[in-house]
């Protein structure tokens, strides 16, 4: 008799790629030309490419280890089983710190922006009310699961790409190639600034908290997950290259110290680029772009934090259990944002160090232990070594920068 059991159709690679790209490419991309100005274009391209490759490898290593476990098994389960409770505790605190601080930062930073936008529509709300409304909307989407996140993320990512092209596409036609590729002036060097840029590049490819959800979403299909990671991170790299080329190709290196002295944010960069931009309603389009950028990254970060908390506490994938997980994911950052709206500034400087631990070092160590316990794969060992070297180099860069031993471009 024919088996009439229906096999659920595999979701498209596109949805997973949108989650990755939406998480990775946020409003923080606008700071890249500023922090990379000292190292300039050649080093910027090299560091972005190396960081993309290393972070993709670390994600693939973590995915490979995850496939030895049931769907839903996340960082805590894998680390506790393969590296022990000590490593699991350290790694868990790192994840909670990084994703919690980022969630706190998104709520704190976006509250005033959305308060102003809602008020302009004729609905008077306070900043606190805007923060609560935004958090509830994002929490509802995350509670629905990966499918809901992927759909909204796709809309946000496509809107961001369209707005990015509308705003800055014309800059590509005006790129000054000799300026981009020009050697350093006599007595000046680009390479001393390169090491300090590396932690920013690592942070620009942070998506590892979303892998657990993708493993469940694609029913542990290695090929689908791999292609989603490749497409998502590849799109992110392409968007970064577009932005770096557009800005550095229209502004000489000598213009960036002034931008840095003005605060180094998107407002200062836009002011310097304004004579090159031929876009009407520039401020309106930038405001719309920032809204989509914040929502996409906010969704990606909190979806990763949601999956980690569910795995750490062993909650089932039921509506009631997901509601408890959502409360633990969103309530603490929201309350912290309401009572201490600027407190994250003091702690966010350490986020890069902890991100190196759980998104680079730990995936490599997990893959190494999995090689010992499960069927070894010779091709994995070189990837483990490369990822570990990348992690150590980032820790070195962070430490030297924190001690003030690295040169700072544009410093007075």
From TrEMBL:
Membrane-traversing stretches: 12-34, 40-65, 86-107, 127-145, 152-170, 190-207, 228-246, 288-309, 321-340, 346-368, 380-405
Highest taxon above the source species: Bacteria
Entry coiled-coil feature ranges: none
Pfam name, any one: Trp_Tyr_perm
Molecular-function annotations in GO: aromatic amino acid transmembrane transporter activity
GO cellular component: plasma membrane
Membrane topology summary: Multi-pass membrane protein
Keywords: Amino-acid transport, Cell inner membrane, Cell membrane, Membrane, Plasmid, Transmembrane, Transmembrane helix, Transport
Location of this chain's protein in the cell: Cell inner membrane
GO BP term (any one): amino acid transmembrane transport
Main location: membrane
Keyword Amino-acid biosynthesis in record: no
Function of the protein: Involved in transporting aromatic amino acids across the cytoplasmic membrane.
Family, similarity comment: Belongs to the amino acid/polyamine transporter 2 family. Mtr/TnaB/TyrP permease subfamily.
Protein name: Aromatic amino acid permease
